[in-house]
Amino acid sequence: MTQTILIFGVIWAGAMVAYYLVTRAFRNADVGKMKERILDSPAKEKKQKAGPTQQALLTAEDQQTGRLVTRILKKFEVLKRLETLLEQAGLRWRPVRVVHSCLALFLTGFMVARIFIPVPYVAFQLVFGALTALLPVAYIARVRSKRLFKFEEMFPESLEFVARSMRAGHAFSVSLEMLHREFQEPLAGEFRRTFDEHNLGLPLESALLKLAARVPLLDVHFFVSAVLLQKRTGGNLAEILDKLAYVIRERFKLRGKIRAISAHGKMTGTALTLIPVGVAVLMFYVNPGYVGFFIDDETGHYMMGGAITLQLIGYAVIRKIVAIEV
C-alpha cells in the first residue's frame, strides 16, 4: 500500500510539473503574439499575406492546451455539446480543461479506492473512479439547472417590462437593452448579448434564435416565435407579450404546485434506490465473504447484474410517474 501511494505521488507531482511548464511556455507564446499585434510587425503582415484565414483565438488556445483531447472530442462530436453545456451554465471554462479535470479525478478516485477497497475487487475500484470523474460534469449540470430556473423565474416580469416600455414609445430592440439595467443575472446578461448582436449588424431573427439556443426553455421558444410571427404578420406586440407573460406565470405557479406534490414520490424513489447500495457497502465490512459470492462466482455475477438492472428500472419508473409535464 505504501509503495502504491508513493508511485501515485510521484506520477501526480510529475504531471503537475509538466503541466506548469507547458502552460508557462504557451503563456509566453501568447504574450509574444500580443506584442506582435500591438506593434504591427512586418513579419506578421507577411504571414497574413502568405497564409490562409486565421483561426479563432479560442480554438487556437484549445488546440494548444490539448490537441489530442480536442481531436478526440471533435471526432465523437462531444466538443460542441460540452461547449453548449458550459455556455448554458454561464461558466467560462474550456472544454479541454474539463476533460483533463475528469481524467485527473478518475485517477485520484481509482487510487483512493485501491487503498480502501480490497485488491481483488478491481471492478468496484474502476466504478468508483468513473463516478469521481463525473463530478465536474455533474457540477456543470447543477449550475446550468439553477441558472435556467432563475432565468425562468424572472422571465414573465421581463416580458411585461418590454411591453410597458414599448407602450411608452421605445423600440423593441431598445427595450431589450433596457432589461440589462433593470434586471439581474442571468436574464440581464442574455438579453444584453442579444441586443449587442443585433446592434452590431446581426438580424433580429438570428439574434433571437441564438437566444433560444442559449436558453433552451419552452417559454423562451414561445417568446421568440411570438416576436418573429408578429414581425412577419403584424399586430400589437405589447399585448401579445402581456398575454404571454400571464400564461408563463400561471404555468410556473402550476409547476411549483406539482413539484411540491410530487416531492414525496421523488424522495421515496431516491430512498428505495440508495438503501440497497448502503446495505452492500456495509456488508463489505461486516461480512466480506458473503459479498464476495457476487463478485467471485459466475452465478453471483448474474444475480448482481439482475439486481442492479431491476433497481435502475424501478427508479426510472418512479421518476417517470412523478415527472408531470405542464
Explain the layout of strands and helices.
Blueprint: H1 2-39, H2 42-50, H3 57-65, H4 67-75, H5 79-89, H6 95-116, H7 122-133, H8 135-167, H9 172-182, H10 187-199, H11 204-214, H12 218-233, H13 237-286, H14 288-296, H15 298-322
Helix pairs in contact: 5-8, 6-7, 8-9, 8-13, 9-10, 10-11, 11-12, 12-13, 13-14, 13-15, 14-15
Structure notes:
By secondary structure, the protein is mainly α. Helices cover 85% and strands 0% of the residues. The protein is built from 15 helices and no strands. It has helices spanning 2-39, 42-50, 57-65, 67-75, 79-89, 95-116, 122-133, 135-167, 172-182, 187-199, 204-214, 218-233, 237-286, 288-296, 298-322. Helix 5 packs across helix 8, helix 10 packs antiparallel against helix 11 and helix 11 runs antiparallel to helix 12. It is elongated. The termini are far apart. The model is unreliable at 25-63 (pLDDT under 50).
Ranges with pLDDT <50 over ≥5 residues? 25-63
Rg from Cα: 27 Å
Report the span from N to C terminus.
55 Å
Shape assignment: elongated
Strand content: under 5%
Key traits:
single chain; 326 residues; mainly alpha; elongated
